[in-house]
Amino acid sequence: MKLSIKPYKGARDFYPEDQAIREYMFGVMKQTVKKYGYQEYDAPLIEPIELYKAKSGEEIVSEQTYSFVDRGGREVAIRPEMTPSVSRMVAAKRQELSYPLRWFSIPNLWRYERPQRGRFREHWQLNVDLFGVQSIAAELELMMVAGDIFNAFGATNEMYTIRVNHRQLLNAIFFNYLELSQDQGLGMAHLIDRRNKLEHGQFLSRMDELLTPEQKEEGLAEKILKIFDIKKLKDLPSSLQSIPASLELQKLLAACSAQGLNNIQFDISLVRGFDYYSGIVFELFDNDPENKRSMLGGGRYDGLVGLFGVEPLPTVGFGLGDATLLNFLTLHHLLPELKSPVDLIIAPVGDGETQAGATLAATELRKLGVNVAVDYSGRKLADQFKAAQKKQVNYLLIVGPKELESQKFTLRDLSQSSEVSLSLKQVAAKLKVT
Amino acid sequence: MKLSIKPYKGARDFYPEDQAIREYMFGVMKQTVKKYGYQEYDAPLIEPIELYKAKSGEEIVSEQTYSFVDRGGREVAIRPEMTPSVSRMVAAKRQELSYPLRWFSIPNLWRYERPQRGRFREHWQLNVDLFGVQSIAAELELMMVAGDIFNAFGATNEMYTIRVNHRQLLNAIFFNYLELSQDQGLGMAHLIDRRNKLEHGQFLSRMDELLTPEQKEEGLAEKILKIFDIKKLKDLPSSLQSIPASLELQKLLAACSAQGLNNIQFDISLVRGFDYYSGIVFELFDNDPENKRSMLGGGRYDGLVGLFGVEPLPTVGFGLGDATLLNFLTLHHLLPELKSPVDLIIAPVGDGETQAGATLAATELRKLGVNVAVDYSGRKLADQFKAAQKKQVNYLLIVGPKELESQKFTLRDLSQSSEVSLSLKQVAAKLKVT
Questions:
Q1: Which residues of chain B are within 8 Å of residue A36 when distances are taken between CB atoms?
Q2: Peptide bond before B100: cis, by omega within 30 degrees of 0?
């Protein structure tokens, strides 16, 4: 039987060159969030399906989860997102934990969807959450963290924009200003969310389907189009300008500006898919029109922790996916060239006895802080050269019976094709300097 | 509806204090294997079930995998081990890759089994594999890596032993020396593998069940007991001493000794569960009788890459689980005390205006390399003190309107209850020194 060499559909193999990029990305993320005092946590990959049914949203649970029944008859899912798990963990220690609580994690998540550019069935997502802060200081901090992560990768403020909206403003628009029914409001939220994925004609006909003949006669379609074309808070109808949600948004935009965070924009069309958001929501977009998808999204979800039967807890969090971030870094030429982690390859010239001597030399060099691989293939020296070059390692150390006798070894700089004869201590000193 | 706060059975939540230990453990592992030139890779969490059916062993596939049918009708499993995935990845680039190839990964793995001490349904496992080396130089290196990892955690050679055996020696014992049938050999391998988990009486009666009346009459049970009590290669019957497997083991033991690796022992009862091992196998055991389980296991599996329809590739690898390692480190008091990654908490005294000033101060300190969290709770100063102490952070910076005016801030050392008045630059300098 011949087995397939392909990875599971929509999932990725990470060869060392891919993994090095991922590790670089995770490293920058971790360093940035730690500056703000966030601490890492992790949760099991599998959770009971109820956890997602509660608040993740209909589409995710019924169409996109990897759910199954385990051997003990429990209905479970591979996590499609981390927010329910982290809420569960905080709820479990609601009284013991000290607030404000700052937590982060970089879990892998699974969703059954059609694989496309920057969208995989398995992806990793930085999750950053701040628990216990009622004021917009929380939203402000998370937007600052989001921006700082992108800046830490070398992005400039011109490269991206954070768009912000408020769930209560949307509710006021749907149910007070437009006087939609509950079902119509949900349908409209979903439609607005997908607006820039649809052609304008498609969008209009879907909207048409949502409205009653009376509503259409009253010109509700035009009213909807007009309100969702508003670009600034001050252009909102006056009945909407004075509600708490609008005032909170104004306050947040002013606070961002006071902290020097200037690439923030009000976006009346911003919805976000999860049912649990209760206040301000935000997403970070690439300004390059080539890359239209949101890269980072989050918001306030004050009600989730309370679903576990404990006192509710104000919470703001965001998620940043690895695949969309990688697209951004590639498109803007922000990925650094990553060096081989192997400092030196030892090429033994001779039989098992020489290999044993080469191994002793390698141990010595490792103790001196050098990362050393030994070529145990037994090939000719010329072939060992070629293999080292293919691995993009800079230095090769030739070890034969003569070298072991004299304890002087030939160090070859593969980038310059030059050679010097050195003791092991000298080799270590040279490699640490360069 | 009230949701459960418990993690899925047999899986663990990692709160920041647990995650810090895990990150410490992974850090030591990574640093050690990188010294030997190993590079990190990763593979998808999910694979087609065929991948495990091929060679993982009957018990794992039919009783222990988390397998299910995906929404596209594919029969898949959450990986119970990493070796099939890494073999698939190497096979997919069999020609392009340069050998010897050194790879490692620390995946999470899932097995449906009864949770018990040091044994969970989800665990992480360091996987280290060396591809392309035919000689025992490969086994030697992996045993050196294994020992070095334990030593890097502060273990001494007296704390653990690496036991070694050879699959071909076991085959020669079962089929040539004892003249068992194929089925009897498999049953006996399984029984020998579980020997120290069974009472001696149980072991004897199970062995009895495997043998025919004729075999029992010929005294085969006694012969089996006698051979599996042998402690040294030189005590093997002469017909078994000269076979290639025994000679290879002798050579390996001598090579270990030449490299100063002295806590290696021949163990004729060592089997290892996976069907794919083809040569030398080894396991690392705690010498403390409290902790009987193997912590690390591996061996040679030259046939696995070839199952993907490419030229076979000699391979040696091992796996080291996080839970058994943590038991070892705890039992031997080797876990270091891990400090809070938060250097400083800022306590704003006053309203939103003061919090905005505190946020600007935090940004300044972060630029100077300090990890700073701001307490946005709006609580009284005394309560902010208590919260900071609970978080085990050493320093608190008090920021009020007066401090913002003068740009001199009160830094409180929470461990000594002392205070000094400093500029932000002085704060950063002080925290970096201590």
A1: 362, 366, 371-373
A2: yes
Quote the CA–CA distance of B400 and B388 in Å, as a whole number: 17
Shortest CB distance from B40 goes to which of A23, A76, A140?
Answer: A23
Strands lying side by side in the sheet with A75-78: A46-48, A75-78, A66-69
Residues A129-186 have pLDDT tens digits of 999 999 999 999 999 999 999 999 999 999 999 999 999 999 999 999 999 999 999 8
- Enumerate domains of chain B plus CATH numbers: 19-331 (3.30.930.10), 344-433 (3.40.50.800)
For tokens 């009895």, the residue is: B208
Name B420's bridge partners.
Answer: B411
CA distance B154 to chain A (A): 15
Instruction: Tell the residue number behind the tokens 């007991």, with chain if given.
Output: B225
Q: How far is A103 from chain B (nearest CA, A)?
A: 8
- A50 exposed, middle or buried (CB, 10 Å; 0-12, 13-18, 19+)? middle
Predicted complex ipTM: 0.94
DSSP for A281-335? EEEEEESSTT--SEEEEEEE-TTTGGGGTS----EEEEEEEHHHHHHHHHHTT-P
- Tell me the C-alpha distance between A284 and A297, whole Å: 6
pLDDT at A1 over 70: no
For residue B434, which of B413, B410, B419, B417 has the smallest C-alpha distance? B413
**pLDDT of residue A225 exceeding 80:** yes
Task: List, as one string, the DSSP characters of A222-280.
Answer: HHHHHHTT--SGGGS-HHHHTSHHHHHHHHHHHHHHHTT---EEE-TT---S-TT--SE
Measured distance CA(A127)–CA(A138) in Å, rounded: 15
Tens digits of residue pLDDT in B285-294: 999 988 878 8
Alpha carbon distances (Å) from A422 to A348, A362, A364, A370, A428: 16, 14, 14, 15, 10
> What's the CA angle centered on A358, arms A355 and A364, to 5 degrees?
150
Q: What sign does the dihedral B359-B360-B363-B364 (CA atoms) show?
A: negative
* Chain A interface disruption, residue of B3, B82, B384, most A CBs within 10 A: B3
Q: Tell me: the pLDDT tens digits for B113-156?
A: 888 877 899 999 999 999 999 999 999 999 999 999 999 999 99
To the question of pTM greater than 0.80 for the whole model, the response is: yes
Q: H or E element: which one contains B419?
A: strand B418-422
Nearest Cα of chain B lies from the Cα of A236 at a distance, in angstroms, of: 26
Whole-angstrom distance, CA of residue A173 vs CA of residue A179: 8
Secondary structure class of A375 (helix, strand, coil):
coil
Beta bridge partners of A14: B42
